[in-house]
Design brief:
The protein is mainly α and 284 residues long. Helix content is 70%, strand content 0%. It starts with a helix and ends with a helix.
Length: 284
């Protein structure tokens, strides 16, 4: 297994540099979509004069730094979107990658729950450690140790993401028993027609009709889903590293993240997109 060989040889084991080059293309594309979406639903008007977001920023960072953040906010939105497109297409990848990581890191200053941002920054830093990001849309498959260290880092970061997520879910009695998911679906069934953005969720109607109640049957079904998700998040990183189980693990992971994303497509597109894109790093 390449992972253990890389550890044993001090990261000098040749790996396929195309794995990280593919992830670079996907990374730039996914964050480019996120950055483009950030212009909508009030994102462009964040930190406008007299806005609540500007007032909160000034309370948190002080009046001077709050005004500085407001002044650079819109230019950064434009620059980081262009940089993501350049990264995906392979135009000056090292420079574009630095601008993309800095652009996504800016969201740590104002988002309340920036878990996807932290993962984006960490995976971007893994790419920064790569010695061969490639150029253009070409992917090189000649074995080389140039990306071995970066590929191993990406595997470790993604594994930690899954295992930490499984641990937090297991610790939550409400999630583990299925009650949280049942309550969430029930609330969605009651309020979905009153949401300000009708396309904020993509849950199939039959799922809402079948599991949108709070009966013991509904909670029992969601308990089964919760246990399955916890088990899948524990097993997935290991299964991805074993060549015999890799295709099945990829299919299971994509299916799991597709289900996650249907809950909140806009919010989870980065997390699900980068998680599944990182599967490229697990391959030999």
């Amino acid at each position: 297994m390449w992972f253990y060989d890389a550890l044993a040889t001090g990261f000098r084991t040749p790996t396929d540099p195309g794995r990280l080059q593919l992830f670079r293309i996907l990374y730039g594309s996914i964050l480019g979509i996120r950055f483009a979406l950030s212009f909508g639903q009030g994102g462009w008007r964040r930190f406008a004069p007299g806005s609540l977001s500007l007032r909160l920023a000034q309370q948190r960072f002080g009046a001077r730094l709050g005004r500085l953040l407001a002044s650079v906010y819109r230019p950064v939105l434009v620059v980081r979107t262009a940089a993501a497109a350049a990264l995906a297409t392979g135009l000056v990848p090292p420079v574009a990658l630095v601008l993309v990581v800095a652009g996504i890191a800016m969201e740590l200053l104002y988002l309340k729950s920036p878990s996807a941002v932290r993962y984006s920054v960490l995976t971007g830093m893994c790419l920064l450690a790569a010695g061969d990001l490639g150029h253009g849309l070409h992917i090189d498959h000649h074995p080389s140790p140039a990306n071995t260290w970066a590929q191993l880092l990406l595997v470790l970061v993604t594994t930690d993401l899954y295992w930490n997520s499984a641990y937090q879910k297991y610790r939550s009695t409400q999630f583990r028993t299925g009650l949280f998911l049942a309550q969430w679906m029930h609330s969605h069934a009651q309020l979905k027609d009153r949401l300000p953005y009708r396309r904020e969720h993509a849950i199939p109607g039959f799922m809402v009709r079948l599991t949108g109640g709070l009966t013991p049957r509904d909670i029992g079904l969601w308990r089964l889903v919760a246990v399955t998700v916890i088990a899948a998040e524990v097993a997935l990183p290991v299964a991805l590293l074993i060549p015999q189980s890799t295709p099945y693990a990829i299919a299971a992971g994509i299916g799991m993240h597709a289900a996650f994303t249907s809950l909140k497509p806009r919010q989870l597109i980065t997390f699900s997109g980068l998680s599944t894109a990182a599967y490229a790093a697990f391959l030999t």
